[in-house]
């Protein structure tokens, strides 16, 4: 049966003008979210470097309609095409996808003398979460560095794989090498979504690792392009975080330093003014205290005020108040003796105030 089936296929491809040779390869089925974009890589054989390539829409080869070509038109609506003859890959990019863009497409190499060579794929546009997707299709790293690709999918289902277009694959739970580079695959449940994550880590990158790869889960693939450059003096090796949580919540040290610096600048002026105010207050208090102490030292101690009249000049006498109806006989001036009576305060024995002086008349009675 096999030889007869092969013969039928040969006749079919000859009649339709399509080559059955596997000289063009690409993914078989991709899922894209509505409004998003997708880039499809189409790898071709070395002998097709100078041939025209084109992108055709439709399930059947004979009935498909050409959308874009590498000669003309290279862009049509939201679809564009480009050809990298060094990598032997032409890529088709479709943007702002809608459910109406869901269909079968063809990567085709035009051959004038023979039937065209091509391969078919399916694109599904969904309004919800795609069955398999990545955050970005283009990644860049330097020689000797490492890169981690996060392939997200909705259900656990079949075991995932990481493949290089036109090359070999590495399955989940296994470690292997692609073009001499170590590859490790880890599958775990996502903490940010309800699905799962396939973490693909490639370490010890070399220039030969530049090219197209894809994540595979069941019959769905998602292409990813990795570019490896030579390190420069201003470029350092960085590793993309393998944790979905860290990837979503990471804050760079540079932003943290800028925030700290802005806070320090904001607090510097009021803190400086507060320090100056405290210093001026302390100096003022110290000067006032010194002035007060100096004034207290300069004030003379309490001295006893001597009365203008000494003890010897004071005549103490007994004053008697005579009550009665007896009429007092006026006395001549030579019979009157005047004396000064000073009232002494025990708490201030030597203090004499003018208001405390009592004047009295002493009359001497002769019996």
From TrEMBL:
Region: Disordered, residue numbers: 290-313, 345-367
N-terminal signal peptide: 1-21
Biased amino acid composition, Polar residues: 300-313
Pfam families: V-set (PF07686)
Assigned keywords, A-Z: Membrane, Signal, Transmembrane, Transmembrane helix
Subcellular location: Membrane
InterPro entries with a match to the protein in the record: CD300_family_receptors, Ig-like_dom, Ig-like_dom_sf, Ig-like_fold, Ig_sub, Ig_V-set
GO CC list: plasma membrane
A GO MF label: transmembrane signaling receptor activity
UniProt entry tagged with the keyword Signal: yes
Annotated transmembrane regions: 263-285
Highest taxon in the source lineage: Eukaryota
Domain Ig-like: from-to ranges: 3-126
Full protein name: Polymeric immunoglobulin receptor-like
């Amino acid at each position: 049966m096999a030889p007869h089936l092969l013969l039928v296929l040969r006749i079919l491809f000859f009649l339709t003008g399509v080559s059955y040779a596997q000289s063009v390869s690409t993914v078989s089925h991709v899922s894209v979210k509505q409004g998003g974009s997708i880039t499809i890589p189409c790898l071709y054989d070395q002998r097709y470097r100078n041939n025209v390539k084109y992108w055709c829409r439709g399930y059947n080869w004979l009935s498909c309609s050409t959308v874009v070509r590498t000669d003309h038109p290279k862009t049509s609506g939201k679809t564009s095409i480009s050809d990298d003859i060094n990598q032997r890959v032409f890529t088709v990019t479709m943007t702002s996808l809608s459910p109406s863009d869901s269909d079968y497409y063809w990567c085709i190499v035009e051959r004038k003398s023979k039937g065209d060579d091509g391969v078919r794929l399916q694109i599904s546009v969904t309004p919800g979460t795609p069955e398999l997707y990545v955050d970005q299709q283009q990644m860049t790293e330097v020689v000797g560095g490492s890169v981690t690709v996060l392939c997200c999918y909705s259900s656990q289902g079949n075991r995932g794989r990481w493949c290089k277009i036109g090359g070999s694959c590495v399955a989940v739970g296994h470690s292997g090498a692609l073009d001499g580079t170590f590859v490790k695959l880890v599958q775990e449940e996502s903490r940010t979504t309800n699905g799962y994550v396939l973490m693909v880590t490639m370490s010890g990158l070399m220039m030969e690792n530049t090219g197209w790869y894809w994540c595979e889960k069941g019959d769905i693939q998602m292409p990813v392009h990795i570019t490896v450059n030579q390190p420069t003096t201003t470029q350092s090796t960085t590793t993309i975080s393998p944790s979905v949580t860290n990837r979503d919540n990471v804050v760079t040290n540079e932003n943290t330093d800028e925030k700290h610096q802005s806070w320090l600048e904001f607090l510097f002026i009021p803190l400086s003014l507060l320090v100056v105010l405290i210093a001026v207050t302390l100096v003022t208090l110290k000067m006032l205290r010194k002035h007060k102490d100096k004034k207290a030292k300069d004030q003379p101690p309490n001295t006893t005020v001597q009365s203008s009249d000494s003890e010897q000049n004071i005549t103490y006498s007994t004053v008697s108040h005579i009550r009665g109806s007896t009429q007092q006989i006026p006395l001549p001036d030579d019979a009157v003796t005047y004396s000064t009576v000073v009232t002494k305060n025990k708490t201030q024995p030597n203090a004499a105030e003018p208001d405390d002086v009592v004047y009295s008349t002493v009359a001497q009675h002769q019996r």
